[in-house]
Amino acid sequence: MSLSTWKVDTAHSLLEFSIRHMMISRVKGVFNDFDATIEANPEDLTNAKIEFSIDINSIDTRNKDRDDHLRSPDFFDAETYPKMTFTATSIKKTGENQYDITGDMTIRDQTKPVTFDITFEGKTKDPWGNEVAGFSGSTTINRKEFGLTWNSALETGGVMVGEDVKINIEIEAHKQAE
């Protein structure tokens, strides 16, 4: 089956992350503005072309001071590096509707290979007859590998911010007219 172009419906999609805070809890956040170029047969992603671009300034952890700190040079340095990107380089089918999608993730000026565990959730038609496909997935990255090294020691031992960042995605994509 040939590849089709799919547009991510950001109103029905989610790009979220979580990270340990003060060694005892997790802080969650989202990126509200992102875009993707997807050329795929959703029922067989092995030949898909996938690129994501995330607007760093759209970070939202429900706390303005924390969001401003995350945008600062201590973390993302959004003024210098306004986008985070991911470009798939290898896609392997690992089971029924399951894939490992490996690609180059760039945060700040660091590009590293990252693998997402992705599930094709299915395909349907919306009330207007348009084809819609759903995908979910996750990965964990070490933020220090991408130059996000700021931290603060805690008086009781340990550090303020963990190193591992869990990323979850929920994508609804609409097939574009050919």
Please explain how this structure is put together:
The protein is mostly beta strands and 178 residues long. It has one domain: Lipid/polyisoprenoid-binding, YceI-like (Lipocalin), CATH 2.40.128.110. It is built from 1 helix and 11 strands, in the order E-E-E-E-E-E-H-E-E-E-E-E. Strands 1-4-5-7-8-9-10-11 form an 8-stranded antiparallel barrel. The radius of gyration is 17 Å and the shape is globular.
Question: How is the topology of this model organized?
Answer:
Layout: E1 4-8, E2 14-21, E3 25-31, E4 34-41, E5 44-55, E6 59-60, H1 64-71, E7 83-95, E8 98-107, E9 110-125, E10 131-142, E11 161-175
Antiparallel strand pairs: 1-4, 1-11, 2-3, 2-11, 3-6, 4-5, 5-7, 7-8, 8-9, 9-10, 10-11
Sum up the structure in keywords.
single chain; 8-stranded antiparallel beta barrel; mainly beta; Lipid/polyisoprenoid-bd_YceI; Lipocalin; 178 residues
Assigned CATH class? Mainly Beta
Rg, rounded, reads 17 Å
Count of helical stretches? 1
Derived structural class: mainly beta
Biggest beta-sheet profile: 8 strands, antiparallel, barrel
Write down the secondary-structure element order: EEEEEEHEEEEE
Shape: globular
Q: How many domain units?
A: 1
Q: What low-confidence regions span 5 or more consecutive residues with pLDDT below 50?
A: none
Helix content: under 10%
Please count the beta strands (DSSP E, at least 2 residues each).
Answer: 11
- CATH topology name, in short, is Lipocalin
Sheet with the most strands: spatial strand order: 1-4-5-7-8-9-10-11
β-strand amount: over 45%
Q: Which oligomeric state applies?
A: single chain
Mean pLDDT: 86
CATH architecture: Beta Barrel
